[in-house]
Structure formats: structure tokens, C-alpha cells
Amino acid sequence: MDKHPPAWQVGERIKTWDRPGLPAVAPYQPAPLIEAEKVAPTKYKNAKGVMLPLALHHIIPWSALREFWGELFKREHFEAFKEFASLYGCPKPQLKRLRESVRQQKFQAVLLEFDGLSLDQLICWGKWNLVRGPAFRVGSKEAQGHVGFDPSDDFDDFHWFAKDANRLVQLRSLFGGIKKYVDNPKSDSTGDERDLIAFLQSFRNSSVLAEIVEFDQKMWLVDPNSPDYVPGNSAYTAVHPKWWKRQR
Fold first, then answer.
1. Is residue 173, in this structure, part of any structural domain at all?
2. 3-class SS at 184?
3. pLDDT digits (tens, 9 = 90+) for 173-205
4. Half-sphere exposure in the Cβ direction for 14 (13 Å, CA)
5. Residue numbers of the chain with a pLDDT score lower than 50
């Protein structure tokens, strides 16, 4: 990789990045232990002591976050990128260095660490964008027209029955603004960047920027048509029933 590639080239590379690994620190890991028999007694009958495998689910998908990040670099909207990074609680001194490095088109700016996390980890695994729930969910191909499935690379609307539902509703607004920017290739003027900065700043002190939504049984419903639990060598080789997110 070139030491100083053009910003547009850096942006294109960011848009192809795989999802970075889950940080190996609290509160990301270890996941809380949930006794499966207590939350799904019918599907986990005779499975005393078996723990429900939990995973962190994105509300705004990683694919949308990296696309937005890449577009900010491509269009050289570095001030807007600074506002975006500030939503993750990046310390101001490091943000200042980050802005200066990006302006100089140094790829190393993308790799700065914040509290032991690389910037791609921080943006991918922002605590305010995560809900902890069952690892095994009903996918779109299995949903057969029903709602409440795992949407994969689309917005994952978790707000029904969540304790801080208003925050999750606000995240839809943030997702909409990100998508509007990415889908409008003409948003490359100084005026457009000012509008985007104002939009991002509107979330700076909101309830959106909160902690992980931890597992809450009321937000989930086990699929009655999925198989009962069958033990395996580990939680991920066993057969587990699948889960829907509850809808109103």
C-alpha cells in the first residue's frame, strides 16, 4: 500500500473492508450467561444448565457505516468525518491528530487506536449501535414474508419492547441521513458538508449515544417451528432453535 494514497482511493478501500473482529474487552466480551431453559423451556426441555449463545447485533449495519466512512474520505469531507468519529467518544486530542493526518492524506490516520481499539473496530462496534440477543436468528430466506427476521445488511429495527426505545427510533434517523448522503453522489460541495456536519452534531448530546442494549427476553420470541435443542461439542455445533425479534 502506498504511504500517501489519494483520499478517494483510501475511501474506496474502506468501503470493501471486512467487519473487524469483536474487541476482546468488556463490555463486548464475555457475553452474559443466560440459562436457555429459563427463556425457552419448550425448546430447551431436558437441557438443564445449557446457556443461550448470545451475539451482538448491529442496528445500523457495518456495511452502511463503512460505505459512509469511505464516501466521506472520497469527497474529502474531513470535517464531517471528525464529527462522525466524535459520535464514538474519540478523545479530542486524538481527533485533532486524526483530522490533520487525514488532511495530509496519510492512510495511517485510518489505523489510529482509541483506548486499545483500532478506528475500524471503534466505528464498527460503537456501543450505541449494538443490541445483545440470541446468536441464532431467523433469516430473511426463512421468514416467508413475516417480519422480525434478521435483515443482514439493512437497518435492524429493535425498538419494540426495548427499555430505551426512543434511542433506537432516533438511530433510524441517523441511518436515514447516512444513506441519503451516500446515495447522493452530488453531495460534494462545501454547503453540503456543512449541512451534514449540522445533522451529525444534532446527535452529539442525544440519548442515541448510550451503552449496549443488553439481552432482554421481552424483545425476543423463539420460533415455534424451529428444531428443539440438540447437544453438540460446543454451543455453536449444537442445534439451537432460532429466534425472532418481537414486533408490535
1. no
2. coil
3. 999 999 999 998 776 666 788 999 999 999 887
4. 29
5. 1-2
